[in-house]
Specification:
Layout lengths: L20 H18 L3 E9 L1 H8 L1 H22 L2 E6 L2 E7 L3 H22 L6 E9 L6 H17 L5 E3 L14 H14 L3 H18 L1
Parallel strand pairs: 4-5
Antiparallel strand pairs: 1-3, 1-4, 2-3
Helix pairs in contact: 2-3, 3-4
Length: 220
């Protein structure tokens, strides 16, 4: 659903702790002004539920509502804990405004939130599967106004979905830390060859490897 379009507001979708798109826009302008007066960064996380439309078509709107409600509950919990502002800016798209949070910290927190969302939806759904993608943009690094921040976060979200979904991404062109800071040229060459052979992006392969590593040690 395009941003700004009316989200479903029937009784099956619980909006507790979540602002409407209009309310979020007003809150964002106010929080932006407060942060800028203090010289603090402002970071925006845009969250999109991957393949929600397909879930609705294949398994019915009730399953879609379960995915949305599970996501809203998890996002509201995080927003309350972090003292962030949560809004629903589209049918399957949500925004988290994080004043005073720098890009790097927000990126790491966003990936933890993504995993929480995936887990919450997996538990809530009776049929089908939905994952979450998150785009991260910050001011003053990426934007000089609230509208520009929203546009840059949208570009980052598009980049995350371009990785196949179920990912977190920064604004295109912004690498938080260059891969060459961590990996040798030989390793990067092998990664590039593997990505070409498997027809996947290098970032996707690195994320899959990190997920495997985390699962391995979380079980131990």
């Amino acid at each position: 659903m395009p941003r700004g379009a009316a989200a479903r507001t029937d009784s099956k979708v619980k909006m507790d702790g979540c602002l409407s798109a209009t309310e979020f826009g007003s809150a964002m302008a106010q929080r932006w002004k407060q942060a800028r007066e203090k010289g603090d960064p402002v970071t925006l996380l845009l969250v999109d539920l991957d393949s929600l439309h397909e879930l609705n078509v294949t398994h019915g709107r009730d399953e879609g509502d379960r995915a949305i409600n599970a996501s809203l509950a998890a996002l509201a919990k995080n927003a309350k804990g972090e003292r962030w502002t949560l809004g629903r800016v589209g049918g399957d798209e949500f925004a988290l405004l994080a004043p005073g949070v720098a890009t790097e910290a927000a990126f790491l927190r966003a990936d933890a939130i993504r995993r929480e969302l995936d887990s919450a939806m997996a538990k809530a759904l009776r049929r089908g599967k939905v994952t979450a993608s998150i785009g991260v943009a910050s001011s003053p690094r990426d934007a000089k106004s609230p509208d520009e921040l929203m546009r840059k976060a949208d570009l980052a979200l598009y980049a995350a979905k371009g990785q196949g979904g179920g990912a977190v991404a920064l604004t295109p062109g912004d690498d938080m830390i260059l891969k060459s800071s961590y990996y040798s040229s030989a390793q990067l060459g092998r990664l590039r060859s593997l990505a070409e052979r498997m027809k996947k992006k290098e970032a996707v392969l690195l994320r899959e490897a990190l997920d495997d590593l985390l699962r391995k040690h979380e079980r131990s």
